[in-house]
Amino acid sequence: MQLAFDRSKYNNPRSLDLNLLENSANNNDASALFFGIYLAEGGFNLLHRYTGDHRALDWAKRGFELDDVLCTAYYAIFLKTGRGTPINSKEAERVFAKIANKLKVKAEEGSPYAQTLLGLANNYGVLGKHRNAEASYWFQKAAEQGEPIGLHFLANTHVQGHGGKTDYAEAARLYASPAELGYLRSQIALAQLYETGLGVGPDFKMAAKLYGQAARQGSSLAECRIGELYIDAEKGINSDHRRAMKWLIRSAEHGNCNGLLTAADYLAKGVIDTSGKIVVPQNMAVAFSYYTDIVVDPVFAAKNPNLVSNANAKRSVMLIGAARITEDGKKLIVFKDDTAIDAASAVLPTKPKAGHQSSKAKKFGR
């Protein structure tokens, strides 16, 4: 069977025949499976059907079952990092050990993909230890061939100061190429450098452009940041609250904790411009549901307890000022702006569950 794609050199993701890719992957073409994983893991997001942790994990596992070295390396990395599956370090080590020597041979023979994967394995400590120097070596090798993920992680080493020195200007230079190719992580990383002025800028318009590119690929972090930039007129971006709320609500619905909090804060009060025109209608019920989403998610609690505490405090204040009524046999909580929620959705579970769905909110006329 003829392979769909040639791994011997890097192909621009935008030039790939995606229909051929999917059809070949469904026929267990290992090369197509690898490139499917590559697109999903890379965040190139050319078509949304290829993105998502579970899709990447499924294709990596199928490649592993076909004894494909590169797919197996990805599978081990996903097991180690919890990409689409619970973290399982022992299984990751067992899986990777099967192909470690073969992967290194491919890397030494010049495969940029094998070089990047070997760098990732050392970076994440798949075999138990994080080997930063070895990871940097292989990222450098892949970067020399223009492999975008290798370029991105090599840039990360300059930001993190591996070797004892940070070099933000070099990091920005390295991020630029994969960002241009559509690598989502590089778009966000470069945007952050432009926003903070580290190594480049500051250039808030360029930051907004890059965040916008990543946001249109579905990054909830980028959706949140571009929304916040449109709010902050002092950063040289024309203040546009409607556009800001579009991105913030999109970020909130995609589960970004900062997007949830910022969108909730604006919806709780609404926004009126200097002429008295309402640019963001108040909706306390939706704001309350967003605060609740933050409070009940254990991932948020583990990663950002201060943000969760802040959301919980604002949620409690909203409840104090709300009325309790019964309509058509249903108990409702009605907020000051006449929006309402089912009272049952205001009761926090004793054991929070990840993936909590937003409380149903509605406009209540009385």
- Could you tell me how far the N terminus lies from the C terminus, measured between alpha carbons in angstroms? 69 Å
Pairing-aware structural class of the strands and helices? alpha+beta
- How large is the share of residues in beta strands? 5-15%
Helicity, as a percent range: 55-70%
What kind of sheet is the major sheet? 4 strands, antiparallel
Helix count equals 17
Number of E-type strands: 6
Low-confidence stretches: 1-11, 46-51, 352-366
Report on this structure.
- With 366 residues, the protein is α+β, with helices and mostly antiparallel strands.
- The strands form 2 sheets. A 4-stranded antiparallel beta sheet has the order 3-4-5-6, covered by helices on one side. Strands 1-2 form a two-stranded antiparallel sheet.
- The longest helix has 20 residues.
- It is globular, with a radius of gyration of 23 Å.
- The N and C termini lie far apart (69 Å).
Topology:
Elements: H1 18-26, H2 30-42, H3 53-65, H4 69-81, H5 89-108, H6 112-124, H7 132-143, H8 148-160, H9 168-181, H10 184-196, H11 204-215, H12 220-231, H13 241-253, H14 257-269, E1 271-272, E2 278-280, H15 284-296, H16 298-303, H17 305-320, E3 323-327, E4 330-334, E5 339-342, E6 361-363
Antiparallel strand pairs: 1-2, 3-4, 4-5, 5-6
Summary tags:
alpha+beta, 4-stranded antiparallel β-sheet, single chain
Short description:
With 366 residues, the chain is an alpha+beta fold. The protein is built from 17 helices and six strands. It has helices spanning 18-26, 30-42, 53-65, 69-81, 89-108, 112-124, 132-143, 148-160, 168-181, 184-196, 204-215, 220-231, 241-253, 257-269, 284-296, 298-303, 305-320; strands at 271-272, 278-280, 323-327, 330-334, 339-342, 361-363.
